[in-house]
Write a structure and sequence with these properties.
Layout: H1 12-33, H2 40-47, H3 51-57, H4 61-85, H5 91-102, H6 109-120, H7 128-148, H8 150-170, H9 174-188
Helix pairs in contact: 1-2, 1-4, 2-3, 4-5, 4-7, 5-7, 5-9, 7-8, 8-9
């Protein structure tokens, strides 16, 4: 007996869910192998989709990478918004969680590889390279401004972001990144 949906095209929601799952698999594959060493075949295998099916969804590795990064950054911004919105916790704790969602989880090979890819191909990721970090800065600034005022919030937010960037390049692990970030946030939010 066949299902009542047999022969029907997938719903738009199912298509969106499938695309999201493929982009998640792509991001995991890029993180594992790096941009240059990742092939469309490896992404297709990880996503449990045929290679022609993957090319049907994404015309090239560049398009796939761009959309995977955009989806990841959108998810990161949403996670940052949630972390900062929890006003029942101290500001320092919320800031550390926000930075972890934004940068800490990317400590390691992917961070270095993405930086190299963006430097080699500045147009690869498009506007998201500028808009997502600006949105992150706005969110951090707003959270700090609630407690310390708008005048001091922007320079403190920018200093924290600079510290985070430096730590990402030094960190050998996410735990190391978070440990050092907690110290920096503590100093800057006193």
């Amino acid at each position: 007996m066949s299902s009542p949906d047999a022969g029907r095209p997938p719903s738009p929601a199912a298509d969106a869910d499938r695309r999201t799952a493929v982009l998640d698999s792509a991001m995991t594959t890029f993180a594992r192998f790096g941009y240059r060493k990742t092939s469309m075949e490896e992404v297709a295998r990880a996503a449990r989709i045929s290679r022609p099916g993957l090319y049907f969804l994404f015309s090239s590795k560049e398009a796939l990478f761009r959309e995977a990064v955009a989806q990841a950054l959108e998810g990161d911004i949403t996670a940052v918004e949630h972390a900062l919105a929890d006003s029942g916790r101290p500001l320092a704790e919320r800031l550390v969680e926000a930075f972890d969602q934004w940068a800490g989880r990317y400590v390691g090979p992917l961070a270095r590889d993405v930086t190299a890819v963006v430097e080699d191909h500045p147009d690869l990721l498009g506007d998201i390279v500028d808009t997502a970090p600006r949105r992150f800065e706005e969110l951090i600034t707003q959270a700090i401004a609630v407690e310390s005022g708008r005048e001091t919030a922007l320079p403190v937010a920018r200093t924290m972001i600079s510290v985070s960037i430096g730590l990402k390049h030094q960190a050998v692990s996410r735990d190391f990144y978070l440990e050092r970030l907690e110290v920096a946030v503590g100093l800057l939010t006193r």
